[in-house]
Amino acid sequence: MRLIFLGPPGAGKGTQAARIVAKHGIPQLSTGDMLRAAVAAGTPVGQKAKAVMDAGGLVSDEIVIGIVADRIEEADAKKGFILDGFPRTLAQAEALDEMLAGKGLKLDAVLELKVDQSKLVDRIVRRAEEARAAGQPVRKDDDPEVFKTRLEAYNRDTAVVAPYYDKRGQLTPIDGMQPIDDVSEAIARALSVAAQG
Q1: Neighbours of 175 (CB within 10 A)
Q2: pLDDT at 189 over 80
Q3: What distance in Å separates the CA atoms of residue 92 and residue 79, rounded to the nearest whole number?
Q4: Which residues are catalytic?
Q5: How far is the first Cα of the chain from the last one, in angstroms, to the nearest whole number?
Q6: 99-136: b or e for each residue (b if 16 or more CB lie within 10 Å)?
Q7: What is the pLDDT of residues 157-182, one digit of tens each?
Q8: How far apart are CA 72 and CA 26, in angstroms?
Q9: Which of 77, 73, 103, 68 is nearest to 24 (CA)?
Q10: Structure pTM?
Q11: Fewer CB in a 10 Å sphere around the end CB: N or C, the chain?
Q12: Nearest alpha carbon to residue 3 among 149, 197, 191
């Protein structure tokens, strides 16, 4: 099962992806997590990405596609994977299709979490407060100002990715404003339809 999760930052993609990982035993490939790991490890890619990420910007397509192409070759991704936060642009979506086709693979489903963006900043502030209360580190991108920059970048660059997959008959919209369990159920229904397709 090869899936893509689309939706603005804070929509709940990571939460839902984690549930699918637990249920289906496929890895969640979050470019953000892969890049953060590279930053923490101080790899050359990580050092390049760090300055851009600290400013709330997006790293280059070339770096991200390379990370994804290598990652899906690993043993745990052989029976499938979830891409979370990627592709972020039309160019990345096209490059991903090309890269998958080159490996003889195709996507099974593209799920878009639809949310009320005016409520996202509150959600992010709450997430940061919960992390602090639990004694966990607060993600840099959970700062409301950095988050607003990311949301603007999403609306400018990434919102066009959903129509790209919609035109190809691959997109399933999911109401991401529902309670978490209801979102999970809607996703499970969409995946069972995709599996039959």
Answers
A1: 11
A2: yes
A3: 23
A4: 13, 88, 127, 139, 150
A5: 12
A6: bbeeeeeebebbbbbebeeeebeebbeeebeeeeeeee
A7: 888 999 999 999 999 999 999 999 99
A8: 11
A9: 77
A10: 0.79
A11: C
A12: 191
